[in-house]
Specification:
It is a single chain. Helix 5 (135-153) packs across helix 6 and helix 7 (264-279) packs parallel to helix 9 (301-312). It is globular, with a radius of gyration of 21 Å. It has helices spanning 3-19, 67-77, 103-111, 129-132, 135-153, 174-181, 264-279, 293-297, 301-312, 323-331, 336-339, 343-346; strands spanning 55-62, 92-95, 115-118, 162-163, 186-187, 191-192, 209-211, 234-239, 242-243, 245-246, 252-253, 286-291, 318-320. It starts with a helix and ends in a 12-residue tail after the last helix. It has 358 residues and is an alpha/beta fold. The structure holds zinc ion (ZN). Zinc ion (ZN) is lined by residues 62-63, 119, 123, 166.
């Protein structure tokens, strides 16, 4: 091979390697319209101005619900904090069975207005199992858990609309084929955001989007970090990505309890600093994704979270809601001023007993 031939060969080799994993994002408002389709974007949907865009705070808890961790949930909601429509704040519980979930307690969480989602039946190890699991196996895990939640937790089957994959481990297209076959409406398993503190400079987090068009790696290289990521189209299936947070020592975490804090003040500042990035930025939903074990290991964490939520309830444009309400809004993004009188939310569980609902 001559020198020039070798140069051309190397060029072709490099470009072919680069083209693997690089795809172009074909989503645009022309081929993707609400309520069934939303392109991945870092701007508020429907052309809303930042000033009229509600800031959503998504508090979520993963894994089994037990007598032991239920006391933490009771304490979090014991302050009776309310959203701007005078109804109680709520959270999302991604519940796995793991042979020790207490479904009576899950029923109570649902009755209090929280969103209940499926986080698999077994939550089995090893993590790599979730990469290779078949559609049938995943259906047994996610839809199977939904059926148990409906049967033993007395939650209407159709009200359990979402899923989160254990370990946030993607499994290519298979989990999403299963999600569509079994009519799940949303997933919240994509990990995104910077993985070092320098990346947070001028960082704009993404909004929830539908999987009609896969973002690939060309536009948002970090949208789905724990691959293999899906490559096919799943029309109408929403993704609520987990946006990493920046911890006090420069570490980053997709689950908030993955960032180490050593005091209540430091924990409060950690939550508030990350919140401000969203609130003073593009107002993309701010997720605080947790395992209740955080409160056991760190007695300072619960008072800090409660103080943070008290602060949130003083804002007229901040809403602490479960995933079901977020998706309801994402399909029909109305300005903040219209949300306070948004009738479906006035009659949601959790506000019926606590507000006049007129
Ligand atoms: Zn889990």
């Amino acid at each position: 091979m001559s020198l020039s031939e070798e140069t051309i060969f190397r060029f072709l080799l490099v470009t072919s390697i680069l083209s693997v994993g690089v795809s172009f994002y074909h989503c645009s408002p022309d081929n993707c319209k609400l309520p069934e389709c939303q392109c991945l974007s870092c701007d508020p949907p429907n052309g809303l101005n930042i000033a009229e865009t509600p800031q959503f705070v998504l508090l979520s808890f993963d894994d089994a619900v037990t007598q032991n961790n239920f006391k933490f949930f009771t304490e979090i909601f014991s302050d009776g904090l309310k959203n701007p429509n005078d109804c109680l704040i709520s959270a999302t519980f991604y519940v796995s069975d793991e042979l020790n979930t207490n479904y009576k307690l899950v029923e109570t969480l649902f009755q209090d207005g929280n969103t209940i989602s499926s986080h698999s039946s077994t939550h089995r190890f090893p993590q790599s199992w979730w990469i290779t699991a078949s559609e049938t196996q995943l259906a047994a895990e996610f839809d199977g858990q939904r059926r148990v939640l409906a049967l033993r937790g007395h939650i209407p089957y159709q009200k359990i609309m979402g899923m989160r994959i254990p370990f946030l481990q993607q499994g290519g297209n298979t989990p999403y084929r299963m999600a569509q076959s079994y009519r799940f409406k949303y997933d919240s398993s994509f990990v995104t955001g910077p993985n070092n503190h320098r990346g947070f400079l001028n960082y704009r987090p993404p909004w929830p989007f539908t999987l009609n068009h896969q973002p690939g790696r060309s536009v948002f290289p970090f949208i789905c970090d724990i691959g293999p990521c899906p490559t096919e189209s799943f029309p109408g299936l929403w993704e609520i990505p987990l946006v990493r947070m920046l911890g006090p020592n420069g570490q980053t975490c997709a689950m908030a309890d993955g960032c180490k804090t050593t005091s209540a003040t430091e924990t409060y500042d950690f939550l508030m600093n990350n919140f401000q990035r969203h609130y003073n930025g593009n107002r993309a939903p701010f997720g605080i994704n947790l395992h209740a074990t955080w409160f056991e290991r760190n007695p300072h964490a619960l008072p800090a979270l409660r103080r943070f939520l008290r602060e949130m309830s003083t804002h007229k444009d901040v809403w602490v809601v479960g995933a079901e309400m977020l998706i309801d809004w994402a399909r029909n993004p109305i300005p903040n001023r219209a949300l306070s009188t948004h009738v479906p939310w006035k009659y949601a569980r959790g506000c019926r007993r606590e507000c006049d609902c007129k």
